[in-house]
Structure formats: C-alpha cells, structure tokens
Amino acid sequence: MENLLSRKSLKITGLLICIFLFMIAFVLSVAFGQTAIQLQTAFDAIFHYDESNTEHVIITTSRMTRAVIAAVVGANLAIAGALMQALTRNPLAAPDILGINAGALFFIVFSAAFFSVDSLSSYMWIAFLGAGVAGVLVFFLGSLGRDGLTPIKIVLAGAAITALFVSFTQGLLVIDEQSMQSVLFWMAGSVAGRSMDMLLPVLPFMLGAGLITLFLGRSINIMMSGDDVAKGLGQRTILIKATIGIIVVFLAGGSVAVAGSIGFVGLIVPHIVRGLVGPDYRWVIPFSALVGASLLLFADVAARFVIMPQEMPIGVMTAFIGAPFFVYIARRGLSKND
C-alpha cells in the first residue's frame, strides 16, 4: 500500500497539520455544547480566565476537563491499536476487538459487585489487571494448535474472550443491578461527566507508556520483518514483545478505567495513519496519537448534537464509524496487513 506522505519533509508537514487539526478539535470540544459559547469566549477562558464569568467557569470546570480526557483516551487507544496490530501482524487487532477492553471492564464491575470497591485508584489497578488477564487469555488461546499464533486464530480467540467477558458483565448486572449503578456509566463508553480526579491517578502510567512507545519505533520496524530476521540483527524479540504487551495493558486498561469501553478507535486510526505515512512506526506512533485524539474529540462534539437535548454516548459514535470499517478490513483478508 503506497503512502501519501512518502518523503520526510511531507511527513513533517503532515505532522504539523495533524497538530493543527487537533487544536481545532480541542477548541470545538470546549466551545460547543448545550450551552452555546462563542469561540472568542473559549479562548478568553483558556488564556484570560475570569472566575466571575459563568461561561469561563463552565469551560474550565467541565468542558476543558472533558476535552482533555477525550484527547488522552483517544491517543491511548490509537497507540494501543497500532502496537497490537504490529505485535500480532493482524490488521483487525485492537483493544476492543481482542477483548482487552472487555476484560478491564468486567474486572471493574466484578470488584464493585462482590467487594464493594468504589475507589478511583482501585479501579485503575483493577482495570490494568483485567486488561492483562484478557490479553494473556487471548494469546494463549490463539497459540493453541500445530500452527501456533496466526492472524485468524487470534481474532477468533479475541472474539471468544470478548463475548465471554461481556456475558459475565451482563450477568452481574442482572444478578445485582442495584449495586451496579455506580459503574453503569463505564458500560456506555463516554467522556461526559468525568472529572480530572478520574484521570490523574492513571495519567502517569499513560504518559509513561506513551513516552516509552515513542522510542520503540525502530525496534518495532525490525520486529515486523519477522522473528528470524530480528534475532539475526541482534534484537531481543521476547523482551520487545513483552514490553509492547505491558504498554498496551497500561494504555487500554487506563482508558477503560477513565472512560469505559470505547470501541474502534484502536482499529480505525492505525490504518488511516499507515495510509498516510507508511509502515514506519517511528512515524506511525506520533501520528496515531494525534489522529486518535482528534477523532475522539470530533466524535464527542458530534455526539452532543445528534439527539439534542440529550447526548449520545461517544462509544456509539465511534461504533457508527468503525463497524463499516471493520467489515471493509475483514473483506480485504485477515492474512494481509497493510
């Protein structure tokens, strides 16, 4: 697949354009909503805050937080999807497709139902644990048989684990619906009503994982050439794969802990980015972060107006875009990774 931005100068220009689009998406997320606020007012609230101005208070206490969370979660899910597609060499790999999100969500619901856990910091560790357990199960099931881990087997294993955890989660809601009210908003996948208190506990892990990923681009490129070639070049493939797996757990698990299960961002964005810059992960990772953040911000803005005066969960908006894209990628062939 030929990329549009083939030269380094074009990629740098594209990166600057993505930064500009991200800034536009962020401003629109802050300015637009049920309460109409002019763009100039949004800029004034950011750069010249006046605590006596009601609109400034709305922006800084609600919309700014919402935009920051949407940007962080979108970037994390996109990077996690890109890493999973590299690790599995499967174009359909993504945290929501391979059960990572479902595992994190189930563990949160299970802890709330049986152990009365209601601490945000506890949810963070529980989400990480659930994401890790789901990832291990998927790779274990996908590795069974004579052929070992193959693209089709890992997708089937991911679908099975996703269905398993979703069924368990729904079963818990039926058994003890009243005690589940505190975690129901995680089920929808949304950034509405979230606070910085929910983001701050997981933010260091997200930022740390994201920064490490920026330095893994060259190693991922070598790994993508095959294990034999990578080992011949002196790469410790097991260490690289384990590092990628841990990073995916932190990025996906942290995102679920903050915003619930938001699907298809990790599937869509890496394909868009590779169509722009090619398979070089030194460029794929930063582009994925910017495009993923922008996509979720734009989706959140759209979700506010589709069924006004109510808001549609952002997970529904991403599914509306992502489901046809999933079918398209599947029809191209599971064994072909662009």
TrEMBL record:
<comment type="similarity">
    <text>Belongs to the binding-protein-dependent transport system permease family. FecCD subfamily.</text>
</comment>
<dbReference type="Pfam" id="PF01032">
    <property type="entry name" value="FecCD"/>
</dbReference>
<feature type="transmembrane region" description="Helical">
    <location>
        <begin position="67"/>
        <end position="86"/>
    </location>
</feature>
<feature type="transmembrane region" description="Helical">
    <location>
        <begin position="281"/>
        <end position="302"/>
    </location>
</feature>
<keyword id="KW-0813">Transport</keyword>
<dbReference type="GO" id="GO:0033214">
    <property type="term" value="P:siderophore-iron import into cell"/>
</dbReference>
<feature type="transmembrane region" description="Helical">
    <location>
        <begin position="12"/>
        <end position="32"/>
    </location>
</feature>
<feature type="transmembrane region" description="Helical">
    <location>
        <begin position="123"/>
        <end position="142"/>
    </location>
</feature>
<feature type="transmembrane region" description="Helical">
    <location>
        <begin position="154"/>
        <end position="175"/>
    </location>
</feature>
<keyword id="KW-1133">Transmembrane helix</keyword>
<dbReference type="InterPro" id="IPR037294">
    <property type="entry name" value="ABC_BtuC-like"/>
</dbReference>
<protein>
    <submittedName>
        <fullName>Siderophore ABC transporter permease</fullName>
    </submittedName>
</protein>
<keyword id="KW-0812">Transmembrane</keyword>
<feature type="transmembrane region" description="Helical">
    <location>
        <begin position="98"/>
        <end position="117"/>
    </location>
</feature>
<keyword id="KW-1003">Cell membrane</keyword>
<dbReference type="InterPro" id="IPR000522">
    <property type="entry name" value="ABC_transptr_permease_BtuC"/>
</dbReference>
<feature type="transmembrane region" description="Helical">
    <location>
        <begin position="314"/>
        <end position="331"/>
    </location>
</feature>
<dbReference type="GO" id="GO:0022857">
    <property type="term" value="F:transmembrane transporter activity"/>
</dbReference>
<keyword id="KW-0472">Membrane</keyword>
<dbReference type="GO" id="GO:0005886">
    <property type="term" value="C:plasma membrane"/>
</dbReference>
<feature type="transmembrane region" description="Helical">
    <location>
        <begin position="238"/>
        <end position="269"/>
    </location>
</feature>
<feature type="transmembrane region" description="Helical">
    <location>
        <begin position="195"/>
        <end position="217"/>
    </location>
</feature>
